[in-house]
Write a structure and sequence with these properties.
The chain crosses the membrane at residues 6-24. This protein has helices at 3-34, 85-103, 116-123, 137-143, 170-187; strands at residues 55-58, 66-67, 75-79, 107-112, 132-134, 151-155, 161-166. It is α/β, with parallel strands linked by helices and 188 residues long.
């Protein structure tokens, strides 16, 4: 085999590897788009739009089903997962904000599809079990189409979406600061 044949063979192998790489990359991009993981929020709830009405069973007690969005009250819907490491790190912050939000007239609702026993074990001692609603998979997906966690939705008293995103983004930090400021003003 001559040197020229070796170069041609190497170029052919390189071209084949590039073609395979492109094919796999485009296939992966298609899968990411299909599952909403490409960064595009095409299936996310649009700002200003009404948030779907969803009912859930309270985690604590055997009370009747409740609306995730109580009429006439601003609400923060929280989406967490017991299997999410970042979510566990947010529990203390959320537990501290829950009473502050209640004093400010803001409903805080943790919405989950997880089994009650798992949620009770995961939320034990946090105080968040009292604001947790268990819903079915389809209603959960209507509220959180991207299945993001830890995430939130800010919903105004008319049921319209005002903001949403990962817990810890700028809107969330502003909300948390406002709640702490209200608490400091009340204590003064």
């Amino acid at each position: 085999m001559s040197e020229l044949d070796t170069i041609h063979l190497a170029l052919a192998a390189l071209a084949g590897a590039i073609a395979l790489n492109l094919k796999l990359s485009f296939r992966l991009l298609g899968l990411l788009k299909q599952h909403g993981l490409d960064g595009a929020r095409a299936d996310a709830l649009p700002l200003g739009a009404p948030v779907p009405a969803v009912r859930g069973r309270p985690l604590v007690g055997k009370g009747p089903w409740r609306e995730a969005l109580p009429a006439g009250r601003p609400t923060v819907l929280l989406f967490l997962s017991s299997k999410c490491v970042k979510c566990r790190a947010k529990l203390a912050e959320l537990a501290a904000l829950a009473p502050l939000a209640a004093c400010a007239g803001v409903e805080l609702r943790l919405v989950s599809t997880e089994p009650g026993w798992r949620l009770r074990r995961w939320l034990a001692g946090s105080g968040l079990d009292g604001v947790t609603l268990r819903v079915g998979a389809k209603p959960y997906r209507r509220l959180n189409p991207l299945l993001a966690s830890p995430a939130y939705l800010f919903v105004d008293e008319h049921g319209a979406l005002q903001a949403g995103g990962p817990i810890g983004d700028d809107d969330w930090l502003s909300f948390a600061a406002q709640m702490r400021e209200l608490d400091a003003d009340a204590a003064a």
